[in-house]
Automatic annotation (TrEMBL):
<protein>
    <submittedName>
        <fullName>Uncharacterized protein</fullName>
    </submittedName>
</protein>
């Protein structure tokens, strides 16, 4: 799930009062953010290696 999709899922759960759905959406958002951080860290390492 993309970060943007997770954000929309959280907003939808909040508006509908679906607390279980909100928890699932927050969990998916955290996973999406962790994945994005991992990719950014890999990109930083790749750029460091290529600049040497």
């Amino acid at each position: 799930m993309s970060i943007e999709n997770a954000r929309h899922a959280i907003e939808a759960a909040i508006h509908s009062g679906d607390f279980k759905g909100m928890g699932v959406a927050v969990f998916k958002a955290i996973n999406a953010l962790e994945e994005r951080i991992k990719h950014l860290e890999e990109e930083v390492e790749r750029l460091k290696r290529s600049s040497k």
